[in-house]
Amino acid sequence: MGRRPGAPRQAATSGLEWTAPRAVAKLLERLGRSELSSRDALAYLLGKGCPPELAEGALRSCLERKFVDDDRLTGMLSEKGQRVGWSQRRLRQEEYRRGLPQEGELDEDLSCRQLAERWLARGVDPVKVAARLQRRGFNYSLIRQAIAENGIEPEPDSEL
Fold it and tell me: Which of 19, 48, 89, 133 has the highest CB neighbour number within 10 Å of its CB?
């Protein structure tokens, strides 16, 4: 029988005896799937039922060995944001969500121009391109500039 919606999750490993090596192994197993911030790594272990002192020790151990590295994760998010076309605002939001220092940088101008160029080349209406870019968090003046650079002049009474 499954868990009913909204019911609190029970730790899957609550029957296990937690030891320091087991906590480190559990965290390393999770880190093998994806990168975690130090805050997320600690929350993961605590969510699995690991005692706080063992979870903090396992996190310290992984931090010392650079298995968990917030600076590296911030850099990875910046690279992903540049590749995917995030605005600076979107990057800050993702860093905040993961509990990272908000210091990643993007070339927001380049991202906006690349997205506008790609969408306009596919024949998307310029007004819709502008709306998409605004939803992604780009500055309005940057959007107008990116669309104008692609040879499309906004009409005086358009919503662009």
Answer: 133
